[in-house]
Amino acid sequence: MPTRIADLHIAREELLPTPNELRAEVPVSEAQAQVVARARQTVRDIVRGDDDRLLVVVGPCSIHDSAAAIEYARRLREVAPRFDDALFLVMRVYFEKPRTRLGWKGMIYDPDLDGRGDLHKGLLKARGLLVECARLGVPAASEILDLVTPQYYAELLSWGAIGARTTESPLHRQMASALSAPLGFKNPTSGKLQTAVDAIVVAAQSHRFPSISLDGRAMVITTTGNADCHLILRGGDAGPNFDAASVEAAVAALQAADLPGRVMIDCSHANSRSDYRRQPQVAAEIGAQIAAGSRHILGVMLESHLVEGKQALTADLSALQYGQSITDGCIGWEATVRVLEQLADAVRSGRRRRIGQNQPT
């Protein structure tokens, strides 16, 4: 008997549909594609400073209930016109949850919340939700965590993020160079800005690397580079980095690398000291910088859901409260609208200030 040297730790193998097969099962209409394309262009304009509105990526920490996510999308669509002159709202639709140790890994990996890991079902649910967001006219954003699964849904994203734990990964930087949507790199959990700045520089370059085709075949792709990557400040081990001095330091680091001096700020995670209730305070200070005329801040991120707080995932799924996070704590819907109102007022005030300063004396 030949000596076995391969697959020693593989317990089970299951075939997934190819990306093309899943796309055919959950297709995108031309009208939905136009929603995504228009939203991407708006985000690009904001990132480049050609649109002075604030990009706001807002929504649940991670999606676990499609019905609640769709209700959130409908509510976001209803309030968006109130802020359209000042804010561009993109819904946070996160399907993969990075874990330092153990825990629920997200809808794609565990759609039934039971640990069985039905990835086929998870990909179907994730893609179906993004298609529904596009049908509603709501732009969607997500963190790009896995190197394979984006082939199944990434064409539906208007904005993407590379998280704090993967910003340093060469493979994620290469992948970012291929993605079609504008993309933010978070500073790592250490808080070190240079890591994310380097990632932006690398992702803007052309790369050649192996991947899988839409037909599920191994291939080598050559990318053009993604010119619309930007820095997300999320705080770090040393504490928050959303204050004016931290923003100026980030701008200086970007400009030293010949990058535009504009940043996005995450109101959650280390910037809120992992307390969701602090997010409105963080947003208020960011708003004060914007109202004072700062053009360094291109956007903010908020973790928000229908119901504030978070709940534990238990075996009795019927006990889960509808519209409440099972991962990080989120501010509730009413608090979310108040934060959006304050941010919109800040953008308008900053715009008036700049116009006033440009008036001839």
Automatic annotation (TrEMBL):
Q: Which GO terms fall under molecular function for this chain's record? A: 3-deoxy-7-phosphoheptulonate synthase activity; identical protein binding
Question: Which catalytic reaction applies to this protein?
Answer: D-erythrose 4-phosphate + phosphoenolpyruvate + H2O = 7-phospho-2-dehydro-3-deoxy-D-arabino-heptonate + phosphate
Domain of life of the organism in this record? Bacteria
Q: In which pathway does it act?
A: Metabolic intermediate biosynthesis; chorismate biosynthesis; chorismate from D-erythrose 4-phosphate and phosphoenolpyruvate: step 1/7
**Can you cite a GO biological process for this protein?**
amino acid biosynthetic process
Q: What is its EC number?
A: 2.5.1.54
Q: Which UniProt keywords apply?
A: Amino-acid biosynthesis, Aromatic amino acid biosynthesis, Transferase
For this record, the Gene Ontology CC terms, alphabetical, are: cytoplasm
Cite the DAHP synthetase I/KDSA domain residue spans from the record: 39-340
Q: Which family does it belong to?
A: Belongs to the class-I DAHP synthase family.
Role: Stereospecific condensation of phosphoenolpyruvate (PEP) and D-erythrose-4-phosphate (E4P) giving rise to 3-deoxy-D-arabino-heptulosonate-7-phosphate (DAHP).
Protein's UniProt name? Phospho-2-dehydro-3-deoxyheptonate aldolase
Q: Which organism is it from?
A: Thiomonas arsenitoxydans (strain DSM 22701 / CIP 110005 / 3As)
What does UniProt list as this organism's lineage?
Bacteria, Pseudomonadati, Pseudomonadota, Betaproteobacteria, Burkholderiales
